[in-house]
UniProtKB/TrEMBL annotation:
Family recorded in the similarity comment: Belongs to the class-III pyridoxal-phosphate-dependent aminotransferase family.
Any one GO molecular function term: identical protein binding
InterPro entries registered for this protein in UniProt: 4NH2But_aminotransferase_bac, Aminotrans_3, Aminotrans_3_PPA_site, Class-III_PLP-dep_AT, PyrdxlP-dep_Trfase, PyrdxlP-dep_Trfase_major, PyrdxlP-dep_Trfase_small
EC number per UniProt: 2.6.1.19, 2.6.1.22
SUPFAM superfamilies in alphabetical order: PLP-dependent transferases
Stored CDD domains: OAT_like
Cofactor names: pyridoxal 5'-phosphate
Keyword Ribonucleoprotein on entry: no
First-level EC class: transferase
Taxonomic lineage: Bacteria, Bacillati, Actinomycetota, Actinomycetes, Micromonosporales
Protein's UniProt name: 4-aminobutyrate aminotransferase
Pathway of action: Amino-acid degradation; 4-aminobutanoate degradation
Swiss-Prot/TrEMBL catalytic activity: 4-aminobutanoate + 2-oxoglutarate = succinate semialdehyde + L-glutamate; (S)-3-amino-2-methylpropanoate + 2-oxoglutarate = 2-methyl-3-oxopropanoate + L-glutamate
């Protein structure tokens, strides 16, 4: 277990004086383009708690954006990293390889959906994995067009900005973007014009018609989709939609890529979220939760696609760094040994029942959705209006932060509160976090009514 006490403690206001001092230094040293959600500076973290430089203990409902699923500084990860860093830190797998890289690829090939023959390749960041998945799909098919969806988030590099849907802050002023990328409607049940019951069927019909008319099936290398959309607002596609898209891809020789960078590694109550949709992707991109906080990413998929690329066509200096690989193996072992799939399901049952209770009380909660420990509420004006309520979202989030609960927002319209606790969080912390949220919601709505 973590040596960090697993309870909330506020010693100062949030952020405290020492954090404020550091934050002044940030402005002088760090590019203003690098933002921070909550400027408390962290000194130590473990389990579901972050300890800041003023001695405050905050409840973590963010996991550094779905990264520290096994907990921060998870004991097995710490031991594996210590051991590896003392043995060797880098050789470059493309120069003189090492076994840890192979073991991570073997684990990925085994754990990802489907029993077909697979291969993997390792990279440093999620964006880099997505870039490489597109490279592989284009090379293997000899085609160039790529289809992404409304509300998609795939990263911040040039190609992945082009795939990402939202302009501010991700793309604004950063063009021109990579070409031959097309965007199709997402089956977003809560906002589907004719209602959630028609969503999957109508969204799929629009997809088929628009790809045919605007792109032409035979020009399409790949369709890339998040099985639960992350930054876009934890949108769970209407049931059946992804399955229909994946089947259609197979029919047309198009590579179906599931971007599981946020949804993977037990987060949604299974190893991968594609499984909930009954989909076996041709390629899967992973990162975030893979290595307990160390930077690692991967593309895993059909051996015939992955092996289509000429030797030397994929790689990078640091990709599959041995320390990151050792951390990944320890994180995966932790997920297995401590049943973190079960833990994600337990978090879902606690969160869903409490959030649905809140939704019954507050009509500004338009939708509660998600799976496992990837849960969100979408906030609206209420009183029958589904108009997005970004101001209320920001106010509630700020109130949670002041009380020592780290929450994140998301959504194309900035009106989604999303919860991504570490899977090892205790029930007490989880419930205390939800109490804080509930009080913040009460305060913000009664203020608005007054
Ligand atoms: C975070 C994320 C990315 C980008 O990963 P980085 O490591 O930040 O480059 C890509 N896709 C999804 C779904 C993500 O959540």
């Amino acid at each position: 277990m973590s040596t960090v006490p697993q309870h909330r403690l506020l010693r100062t206001e949030i952020p405290g004086p020492r954090s404020r001092e550091l934050h002044a230094r940030k402005s002088a040293a760090v590019s203003a383009g690098v933002g921070t959600t909550l400027p408390v500076y962290i000194e130590r973290a473990g389990g579901g708690v972050l300890v800041d430089v003023d001695g405050n203990q905050l409840i973590d409902f963010g996991s550094g954006i779905a990264v520290t699923s096994v907990g921060n500084a998870a004991p097995r990860v710490v031991d594996a990293v210590r051991e590896q860093v003392a043995d060797f830190t880098h050789t470059c797998f493309m120069v003189t390889p090492y076994e840890e890289y192979l073991a991570v690829c073997e684990a990925l090939n085994e754990l990802t959906p489907g029993t077909h023959e697979k291969r993997s390749a390792l990279f440093n960041s999620g964006s880099e994995a997505v870039e490489n998945a597109i490279k592989i799909a284009r090379h293997a098919t000899g085609r160039s067009a790529v289809i992404a969806f409304d509300h998609a988030y795939h990263g911040r590099t040039n190609l992945t900005m082009a795939l990402t849907a939202k302009s501010m802050p991700y793309k604004h002023g950063f063009g021109p973007f990579a070409g031959d990328i097309y965007r199709m409607p997402m089956a977003y049940p809560y906002r589907w014009p004719t209602g959630p019951e028609n969503c999957a069927e109508e969204a799929f019909a629009a997809f088929v018609e628009q790809v045919h008319a605007q792109v032409g099936e035979s020009n399409v290398a790949a369709v890339i989709v998040e099985p639960i959309q992350g930054e876009g607002g934890f949108i769970v596609p209407a049931p059946g939609f992804l399955r229909a898209v994946a089947d259609w891809c197979r029919e047309h020789g198009i590579v179906f890529i599931a971007d599981e960078i946020q949804s993977g590694f037990c987060r949604t109550g299974d190893w991968f979220a594609s499984t909930h949709e009954g989909v076996v992707p041709d390629l899967i991109t992973t990162a975030k939760g893979i290595a307990g906080g160390l930077p690692l990413a991967a593309v895993t998929g059909r051996a015939d696609l992955m092996d289509a690329v000429h030797a030397g066509g994929l790689g990078g200096t640091y990709g599959g760094n041995p320390v990151a690989c050792a951390a990944a193996l320890a994180a995966i072992e932790t997920m297995r040994a401590d049943d973190l799939i079960g833990a994600a399901k337990r978090i879902e049952s606690v969160m869903m029942s409490r959030l649905k209770e809140l939704a019954a009380t507050y009509d500004v909660i338009g939708d509660v959705r998600g799976r496992g420990a990837m849960i969100a509420v979408e906030l609206v004006k209420g009183g029958g209006s589904k108009e997005p309520n970004a101001a209320l979202t920001a106010a509630i989030s700020a109130a949670c932060h002041r009380e020592g609960l780290v929450t994140l927002t998301a959504g194309t319209f900035g009106n989604v509160l999303r919860f991504l606790p570490p899977l090892v969080i205790g029930d007490d912390l989880l419930n205390e976090g939800l109490d804080i949220l509930s009080a913040a919601l009460e305060a913000a709505t009664s203020k608005a009514a007054a």
